[in-house]
Design a protein that fits this description.
about 80 residues; mainly beta; three-stranded antiparallel β-sheet; about 40% strand; globular
């Protein structure tokens, strides 16, 4: 897989500041609670080739997560 090229956390909390705790990632599991807003921003960085990171804002609701980002994503990459 590409695990060696995923060199940062998966996301973070959002509150009064854009970057707040908790920091999300496999190194320290976090319990997400109702009402929290977090980012989901996986990224991959391959030396000599480049990298990309996509970000979504997510609200944790009673029934599960709800993506707050309202953009319709369409990505077309030519190699």
């Amino acid at each position: 897989g590409f695990g060696d090229y995923f060199g940062h956390s998966l996301g973070h909390g959002v509150g009064l500041a854009t970057h707040e705790g908790p920091r999300l990632g496999p190194e320290k599991p976090v319990e997400l609670k109702q009402g929290m807003v977090v980012t989901d921003e996986p990224g991959i960085y391959i030396p000599g080739l480049g990298g990309v990171r996509l970000e979504e804002m997510v609200l944790i609701e009673e029934d599960g997560p709800r993506v707050l980002t309202k953009d319709d994503h369409f990505y077309d990459f030519d190699g």
